[in-house]
Amino acid sequence: MKKGLLLFVRNSLFFCDSGEISVTYQPVHFGHTKDIQYTWLNEQERHRIANQLQQNIPYNVILDNIRDSVDGATISRSHLVNRYDIRNIARDFGLQSASINHADDAASVRIWVEKVRAAVECDQNCDSCVRFVKFQGEQSISDDGELTTGACCNEHMHCIANDDFYLIIMTDVQVHMLATFGVDGVVCVDSTHGTNAYDFQLTTLMVIDDHEEGFPVAFCYSNHVNQESMEIFFHTVSQTANCFLSNATLMTDDAEAYANAWRRVFGPPQHRLLCAWHVDRAWRQNLSKVAGDAVLRATIYKNLRVLLEQPDVARFSELLQQFLDACNEDERLTQFATYFVGNYANRPHLWAYCHRLGLHAHHNMHLEAMHRVLKHVYLEGRKVRRMDKSIHAVMAMLRDKSFDRLIKLYKGKANAHVTGIRNRHKRALALDPAKVQEREGGWEVQGTELYSVTKSDSISHQPLSCPLHCSDCQTCVHSFVCTCTDYGLHNTICKHIHAVNIKLNAALHTHSVTSGMTEDEVASGAAEIAVHLSTMKPQTDRSKRHQEALNAVDQLRCLLEQTDPQSNASIAETVITGVNKIINTVNAMSGITATSFQTAEGTAPSEPWNKLSERQSRFHSTKASRKRRHAETQVKKPTTEEKRHITAGLGGNVPIVNRDRACDDHTYEPVHSTFNFEHSYIKPQ
User: Fold this and answer.
1) Is the pLDDT of residue 640 over 90?
2) Domain assignment of residue 444, yes or no
């Protein structure tokens, strides 16, 4: 206490001219009445809230129950509870989130890492998910505790600064999934922010499984996402999984750091592709470089989509050159042409559909969707500040992905891809069988173009044992090959393959086929199930306490069965009295009464068994609808007819519509000219 400090106690002034101060403690409230705002929650209310927290009841549910209990006449201190009070109660009773090991975030993460390592030391069969960790202000520490060894090699250590943070997570299940689906499959890489308050980005490595769904195979928290940090991430994955990914197809956004780091660690990928969605978004964002009106920007975008979706390589090269020539002839497109030539025209093999047909890789939206689920489901739509909570959410999501995979292995799953196969089968039923003609080596199907369908030479499984199969056609995605864009990009059974199988089955009168799995498939599925089950986390402390309570009940039952009811009648009375008190306490804590689940008799009205339900009233908007923009000014994907006309227009000598802006009635006069961006395309009659 500093000298000369003025201190007020009970309206008395003490002037401190020495280092010692004498203060009289006032044990009761002074200067005001016993108002609600000055009182604390009593112990009974604190215990009641703590019991609800122990049952994992969310904060908002506890608050709802408290506020719904107000009778409208009186209010007490317990009705003024807020989230801060509940958080303080959780802290005082040691009921904080299982992810928080320490008040300090960095210390909490360190404790979690040490717990994982200690579990591995105690049980060699335990899954070691922390493959590499480096805290800020420290040297790098690998999984085995040695510096610069194991997970990260010495050649990458010079890239790690003192303030860098790395945490690489990869469980045994993820290792198995990478070895199963990543060696010759599609591997997606992307990073996301907003999972913590320190600007540490979360980078995820994902593979596409046999159900055409994404499964994350590695996570990396880092304060940088550049080539050096990604090299450390990929090298750790390579050392952990011990598999070669040189035959994989790498799908990324337009950031070269991922691809450069991949080549340094794994070598050049078999194919490197850009996500079509990211390419489309980049084009839309850079349409502002077009120095024209909305019609011109919409026309440019639709021309870009035609180039993107052109399936023939030779025709694509021809259209690309014509598009660039048209851009160079228009001064309004100078800035956009410079952007397009520098970023996309010089590397069409990364984004054009014609260069990815047959790879069954279109976009990495599986990864984008997973990041959205992480943020909006597991992080509840909030930007979590603590790193330990973010890690806990990632591990919970990974656990649920493992269970989802188990469900698919045991029960199967009707996902969007299976639904798409069924819808394509329905569209194939509407095709005229005469349009399917058998030719040497396969079939030809007449659609918007002439498509060729051939049968695969051999497949390693029974068609109906494949998750992506059509039960009506008795075939799977691996049985036939089609030259259409739908089959080449989406790894599905297109309607042309469906049409061929419908005609074949009708000719052979085939209605059923065995769907039994081969011995290798059964063994592979059993091995994967064993890997998933071996890495399931043990029960948490709270569920252990719940199990201990159940065991205590069983033990009490056994003791009563061993007691002589004639000579020890008082024991039964004592047990009944005690158990009734426990039952009443549990009911009070959980809000359950003895009649909560009983239905009232005689309250259901007598109605005919076939009475239709009443039509529900629905909400509807009374706001006047917005006036839609003219079709020519909308930046949207072109229709099939527009694609056909734009493709022909790039070749020249096609009737074009020239919009005369001087006319007040906005009339359109058709003229014959070569295609240029001064005119908009004519809509087919």
Assistant:
1) no
2) yes
